[in-house]
């Protein structure tokens, strides 16, 4: 089995290249031919997902995401992966329009997090995400379905998360260490056992910096699921 994965990326571009790196590094491979076949459609012109959700004007994003997904489907891909958390709000709207599955980063992350919470006994999970992802309740619903207790930062903490995403990573700048320290203090102060880097810009921060074991990256979860779906093996400890 050697299933081809279609990846919709470009939201943002740094996260897409990080995802490809993750899949490559996590795959058990001794030669080129042992790696996962992928088609990456980078669409940086996709309208901002958070703005679309907050404004209620979602049709353009939904239509464009469906077009991208159908392009990959028509190119022979066996499944779709989307390297943007907020875009999964729109992915849920187009899933029934496709003949191939979407490997759902949010649901996969919630399931894996629940297994970890059973082992640790701490079921409070923080969600660090865009205002759009928070507004939709995507992660809150997925975590609650797994018996977990979602925690969302207060207004000041959420503003700092958005600062890290838009003012730092999307702008091509280093993350704000002082702002992150404030975010971390809020999460630990509310007893969170886990914190999800539920925006792929935050995945970039997590990849470039040692944030600690508390933080879990859904993009890494997606990378592992893509490898497994394709019929390949994930490296131990990855």
From TrEMBL:
Keyword annotations from UniProtKB, A to Z: Isomerase
Name used for this protein in its record: Aspartate racemase
Keyword Isomerase among UniProt keywords: yes
Family: Belongs to the aspartate/glutamate racemases family.
PANTHER family linked: ASPARTATE-GLUTAMATE RACEMASE FAMILY, GLUTAMATE RACEMASE
Gene3D superfamilies xrefs: 3.40.50.1860
GO molecular-function terms, A-Z: amino-acid racemase activity
Organism: Hornefia porci
Entry-linked InterPro entries: Asp/Glu/hydantoin_racemase (IPR015942), Asp/Glu_race (IPR001920), Asp/Glu_racemase_AS_1 (IPR018187), Asp_race (IPR004380)
């Amino acid at each position: 089995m050697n299933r081809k994965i279609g990846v919709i990326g470009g939201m943002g571009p740094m996260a897409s290249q990080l995802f490809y790196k993750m899949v490559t590094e996590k795959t058990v491979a001794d030669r080129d031919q042992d790696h996962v076949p992928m088609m990456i459609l980078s669409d940086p012109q996709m309208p901002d997902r958070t703005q679309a959700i907050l404004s209620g004007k979602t049709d353009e994003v939904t239509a464009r995401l469906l077009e991208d997904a159908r392009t990959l489907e028509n190119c022979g891909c066996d499944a779709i992966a989307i390297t943007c958390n907020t875009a999964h709000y729109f992915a849920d709207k187009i899933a029934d329009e496709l003949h191939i599955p979407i490997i759902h980063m949010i649901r996969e992350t919630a399931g894996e997090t629940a297994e970890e919470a059973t082992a640790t006994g701490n079921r409070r999970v923080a969600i660090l995400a865009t205002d759009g992802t928070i507004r939709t309740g995507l992660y809150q619903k997925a975590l609650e379905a797994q018996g977990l207790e979602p925690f969302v930062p207060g207004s000041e903490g959420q503003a700092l998360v958005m600062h890290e995403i838009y003012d730092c990573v999307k702008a091509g700048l280093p993350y704000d260490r002082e702002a992150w320290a404030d975010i971390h203090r809020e999460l630990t102060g509310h007893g969170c056992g886990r914190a999800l880097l539920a925006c792929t810009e935050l995945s970039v921060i997590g990849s470039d910096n040692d944030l600690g074991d508390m933080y879990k990256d859904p993009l890494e979860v997606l990378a592992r699921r893509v490898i497994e779906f394709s019929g390949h093996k994930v490296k131990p400890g990855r």
